[in-house]
Specification:
The protein is an alpha+beta fold. The protein is built from 3 helices and 5 strands. The strands form 2 sheets. Strands 3-4-5 form a 3-stranded antiparallel sheet, with helices on one face. Strands 1-2 form a two-stranded antiparallel ribbon.
C-alpha cells in the first residue's frame, strides 16, 4: 500500500475510482523510471463507451474520443488522456 499526498494506492500505475472527489472519477499514481506523479482523470458521473461498445452511438463516441485525444494519449503514462483511454474507453 502506497500513500501519496494523503491518498492510498495499491501500487504504481494502478488506477482506482475516487467517488469522494469533487470533479474527477479516477486517480492513478503514475511512475516512469524514478519520476512519480498523481494523475486525476475522468469526469465524475460520466461513463465512457467501454472497450467493446455494442450500439452504433457508443462506437461513434469511442471513435471520436480516441481521435480527439490521440496526441495526448501518445504522451504516455503522465497524461490523463492515456489513463482515460485505458480505463474508461
Amino acid at each position: 500500500m502506497i500513500t501519496y499526498r494523503g491518498v492510498k494506492f495499491s501500487g504504481y500505475n494502478k488506477p482506482k475510482k475516487t467517488p469522494g472527489h469533487k470533479t474527477k472519477s479516477h486517480a492513478v499514481l503514475a511512475k516512469k523510471g524514478s519520476q512519480v506523479k498523481l494523475i486525476r482523470f475522468g469526469q465524475q458521473g460520466v461513463s465512457g463507451a467501454g472497450k467493446n461498445p455494442k450500439t452504433k452511438k457508443g462506437k461513434a463516441r469511442r471513435k471520436s474520443f480516441l481521435a480527439r485525444h490521440r496526441k495526448n494519449i501518445a504522451k504516455g503514462r503522465f497524461s490523463a488522456a492515456y489513463w482515460s483511454a485505458r480505463v474508461k474507453w
